[in-house]
Design a protein that fits this description.
Elements (H helix, E strand, L loop, with lengths): L1 H4 L7 H21 L1 H7 L1 H4 L4 H46 L1
Length: 97
């Protein structure tokens, strides 16, 4: 219990992977649901007349959001791995000294 309260134990990778997939599935549905509201309220999209251009821009926004989501979770997994390895090294040094 002390390890959890002192932040020596972090979220496991399984939890991060679960939330990554939940977000990766949920974000496209959210984008699809609010796509028309976003397009009608944006001045940028009002200037574009062709629907194919709007679709292409929406696809680009979707891909950028998915890439950002993936990079954010990769950084968190790397950070938690780094913390775990450094914690193991520190406990080994303290046990020897």
């Amino acid at each position: 219990m002390y390890d959890f309260l002192s932040f020596n134990t972090f979220i496991t990778q399984n939890v991060l992977v679960f939330f990554y997939y939940v977000g990766a599935i949920f974000v496209p549905f959210l984008l699809y649901k609010y796509n028309n509201k976003f397009i009608t309220s944006s001045d940028f999209f009002k200037n574009i007349e062709s629907k194919s251009k709007v679709l292409l821009i929406s696809l680009g926004i979707f891909l950028l959001l998915e890439l950002f989501w993936r990079m954010m979770f990769e950084a968190m997994i790397g950070y938690f791995d780094m913390h775990e390895y450094l914690y193991k090294i520190a406990t080994q040094i303290n046990d020897k000294g």
